[in-house]
# Entry
Amino acid sequence: MSEFKKVVWHKVNVPVKHALINNAELGKVLKDQRADQQDVWQTSLSNPNFAAFASSCGTLGIRVEDRRDLEGTMQKLFTHDGPVTPEIITEVNFI
# Structure
């Protein structure tokens, strides 16, 4: 999350595009637990709204909750002059 602030703080005028896939899980840990046939525990997360956080830092944050909005979001992402963070909400099993 500090990268959002760094881009603004250092006035980096680089059009960084950072896609954030949010499935509200520690996906790597979850997959490892399942692969080892262990009980899945302590992988659920209560995440903030990362798009809102990115916007509050001075970058463009876009939250995508419906896959039908993804194409329009990607068009905004590539036409926006500055840094953009689309937060894409997904299901746990997507990743």
Remarks:
- Residues 2-94 form a domain with the Rossmann fold fold (CATH 3.40.50.970).
- The beta strands are 20-22, 60-64, 84-89.
- Residues 70-79 form the longest helix (10 residues).
- The chain has one domain: 2-94.
